[in-house]
């Protein structure tokens, strides 16, 4: 049996003695056997008064051995939940090196969080047992982990008295009462959705401050359906290769997590597979980074086949290095934020099957790209201009599309409310155009998503005009513009004609001051998609920047000037050619410049 926890500086000979604890069988009717209690006290003294905790099932077999520091030991990771509304079937027996067996708040929180049969503390001093105390859940009271009224306390006992303690009778009564109250564990069943967010002091030149980035991470967490219990900003000079944060801070987080019933910890920086695995082993809960959280949101929000394929590809590329080498342990990744969604059934396949799935997804997305090219070529032949909406997530792109085209696209005041691209037709005085709503951007957008959504992002690359939608009510809007421009530059379309649309103008508290700022971004216009403010002016601005409308004409080129046909192919849209005796007939679409140039050849 592996010994978990703080085994540093413990001699190998002592570790062998601790491992031998698994040979001790506790009689089923006993709370704890005197033999086990004395052995735990003796071993605690040998390891310089570090806590030792063992987890015992109802057959009396020791299932886990954990070693902590002088104040606490980690929780067991594998639990024996038989039913969501029953106890786990495990009891924890641990030492208190101070000699005082009084159960701490941390002990009680662990009892409720793990739904243990009971929590037993063995007071140990100088290698001897001083007293034994126990706590059980109080099923006829509301389960509040921090409230001592939610527990039954027994002891302190000495080793002789503990033999007569009616452990099995008390446990049977508690289980009977819990069965009658179906929602007793209602709150504890949602522990996995209680999140602790960790931000880090920003380096010089970072786009967002630590506070702004952590606020954004909180919005992402809420979008993913998590309840944010706490946000902390840590100051680290250099990330630790094993844990990202120092070992001392890891211990503090472990205690904090247990005390506050945290089910998931989210880092605002990207973790390596090794760091994530090490942190989960020590902290005993799910640990994910910003990238995994965004991937989870995309998995939840994708609706079309194309969107689901792209998200699955991004998830597999992210999970692949975290799956390699885990063998049979892959199944433990099957639940929790950051691992659900498309592709979940692939988590227990081997590396070769995952590579094969990635290859299949890439082929399917390539086919989608080909289909888009066909549609795009058709639009170009029909000379229909395309306007693409781009911008930071939750800037109001979908709302603006609805206002312009009455599209009734789903929109919500959440990050990444819509993912799948939507194209709608808009009739204007000068003709018609197509408006495409694209996926929102965010700072530190996962590279896996940029690569996977290449087929969708191509819509931006082939657009005639970009409407860069900005949430003018957000104080960080200049940073949002920079983040979006960085992604546009990565896509090599930063020089495309762009109109800056400052949306949510109705929420701006100082519009006069804001106008001074937005004048720096030409061309720009303040609008309110919600109330339709300045929408007509926006349409007029779009008309000014639209490319010239092409006119379809039929030309007759003499064979002596056949080279003109190549010129037309290179500079215009040639739809049809017909070689006749009198010359070359061709149907082409020309702008005003080429209409003048080819006037004498018109039929």
Structure description:
By secondary structure, the protein is α/β, with parallel strands linked by helices. It has 5 domains: about 5-185, Cytidine Deaminase, domain 2 (3-Layer(aba) Sandwich); about 190-295, GTPase HflX, N-terminal domain (Rossmann fold, 3-Layer(aba) Sandwich); about 300-365, no CATH class; about 385-545, Rossmann fold (3-Layer(aba) Sandwich); about 550-600, Alpha-Beta Plaits, CATH 3.30.70.240. The chain has 19 helices and 20 strands. The chain has helices spanning about 10-20, 35-45, 105-115, 160-165, 165-180, 210-225, 245-260, 275-285, 290-300, 305-325, 350-380, 395-405, 445-450, 455-460, 475-490, 510-520, 535-545, 565-570, 590-595, and strands spanning about 5, 50-55, 60-65, 90-95, 120-125, 130-135, 150-155, 195-200, 225-235, 265, 285-290, 385-390, 420-430, 430-435, 465-470, 500-505, 525, 550-555, 575-580, 585-590. Helix 8 (about 275-285) links the parallel strand 10 (about 265) and strand 11 (about 285-290). Helix 9 (about 290-300) packs antiparallel against helix 10 (about 305-325) and helix 10 (about 305-325) runs antiparallel to helix 11 (about 350-380). The longest helix is centred in the middle third of the chain and has 31 residues, at about 350-380. It is elongated.
- Show unreliable segments: 77-82, 325-347
Largest sheet: 7 strands, mixed
Q: What overall form do the CA principal axes indicate? A: elongated
Enter the CATH topology name of the largest domain: Cytidine Deaminase, domain 2
Rg, Å, rounded? 33 Å
Number of strands: 20
Q: Whole-number average pLDDT?
A: 81
By CATH, the architecture of the largest domain is named 3-Layer(aba) Sandwich
In total, the number of domains comes to 5
Counting H and I runs of at least 4 residues, what is the number of helices?
A: 19
Q: Specify the helix fraction band.
A: 25-40%
Give the class-level CATH name of the largest domain. Answer: Alpha Beta
Portion in strands: 15-25%
Structural class: alpha/beta
The neighbouring-strand order within the major sheet is 1-3-2-4-5-6-7
| Terminal-residue CA separation | 91 Å
């Amino acid at each position: 049996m592996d010994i978990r926890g703080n085994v540093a500086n413990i001699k190998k000979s002592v570790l062998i003695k601790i491992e031998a604890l698994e040979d001790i069988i506790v009689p089923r009717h006993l709370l704890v056997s005197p033999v086990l209690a004395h052995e735990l006290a003796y071993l605690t003294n040998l390891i310089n008064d570090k806590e030792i905790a063992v987890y015992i099932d109802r057959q009396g077999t020791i299932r886990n051995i954990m070693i902590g520091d002088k104040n606490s030991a980690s929780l067991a990771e594998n639990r024996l939940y038989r039913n969501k509304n029953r106890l786990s079937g495990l009891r924890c027996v641990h030492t208190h090196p101070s000699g005082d067996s009084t159960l701490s708040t941390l002990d009680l929180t662990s009892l409720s969080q793990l739904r243990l049969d009971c929590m037993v503390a063995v007071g140990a001093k100088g290698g001897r047992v001083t007293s034994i105390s126990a706590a059980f859940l109080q099923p006829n009271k509301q389960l509040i982990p921090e409230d001592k009224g939610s527990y039954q306390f027994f002891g302190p006992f000495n080793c002789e008295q503990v033999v007569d303690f009616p452990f099995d009778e008390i446990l049977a009564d508690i289980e009977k009462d819990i069965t009658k109250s179906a929602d007793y564990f209602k709150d504890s069943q949602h522990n996995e959705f209680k999140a602790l967010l960790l931000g880090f002091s920003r380096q010089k030149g970072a786009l967002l401050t630590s506070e702004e980035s952590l606020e954004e991470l909180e919005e992402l967490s809420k979008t993913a359906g998590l309840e944010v219990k706490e946000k902390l900003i840590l100051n680290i000079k250099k990330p630790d290769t094993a844990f990202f944060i120092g070992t001392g801070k890891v211990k503090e987080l472990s205690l904090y997590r247990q005390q506050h019933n945290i089910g998931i910890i989210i880092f605002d920086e990207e973790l390596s597979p090794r760091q994530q695995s090490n942190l989960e082993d020590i902290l005993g809960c799910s640990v994910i980074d910003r990238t995994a959280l965004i991937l989870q949101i995309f998995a939840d929000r994708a609706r079309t086949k194309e969107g689901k394929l792209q998200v699955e590809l991004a998830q597999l590329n992210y999970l692949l290095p975290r799956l390699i080498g885990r063998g049979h342990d892959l199944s433990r990744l099957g639940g929790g934020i950051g691992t659900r969604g498309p592709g979940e059934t692939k988590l227990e396949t081997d590396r070769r099957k995952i590579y094969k799935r990635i290859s299949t997804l890439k082929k399917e997305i390539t086919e989608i790209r080909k289909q888009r090219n066909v549609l795009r070529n058709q639009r170009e032949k029909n000379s229909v201009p395309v306007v693409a909406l781009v911008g930071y997530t939750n800037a109001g792109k979908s709302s603006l599309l609805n206002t312009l085209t009455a599209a009734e696209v789903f929109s919500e005041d959440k990050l990444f409310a819509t993912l799948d691209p939507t194209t709608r037709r808009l009739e204007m005085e000068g003709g018609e155009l197509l408006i495409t709503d694209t996926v929102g951007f965010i700072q530190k957008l996962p590279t896996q998503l940029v690569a996977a959504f290449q087929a969708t992002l191509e819509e931006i690359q082939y657009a005639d005009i970009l409407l860069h939608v900005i949430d003018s009510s957000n104080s960080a809007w200049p940073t949002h513009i920079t983040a979006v421009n960085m992604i546009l530059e990565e896509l090599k379309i930063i020089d495309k004609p762009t109109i800056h649309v400052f949306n949510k103008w109705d929420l701006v508290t100082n519009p006069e001051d804001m106008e001074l700022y937005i004048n720096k971004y030409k061309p720009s216009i303040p609008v309110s998609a919600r109330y339709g403010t300045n929408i007509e002016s926006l349409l007029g601005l779009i008309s000014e920047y639209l490319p010239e409308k092409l006119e379809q004409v039929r030309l007759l080129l003499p064979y002596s000037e056949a080279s003109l046909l190549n010129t037309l192919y290179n500079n215009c849209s040639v739809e049809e050619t017909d070689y006749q005796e009198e010359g070359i007939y061709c149907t082409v679409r020309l702008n005003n410049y080429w209409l003048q140039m080819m006037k004498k050849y018109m039929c």
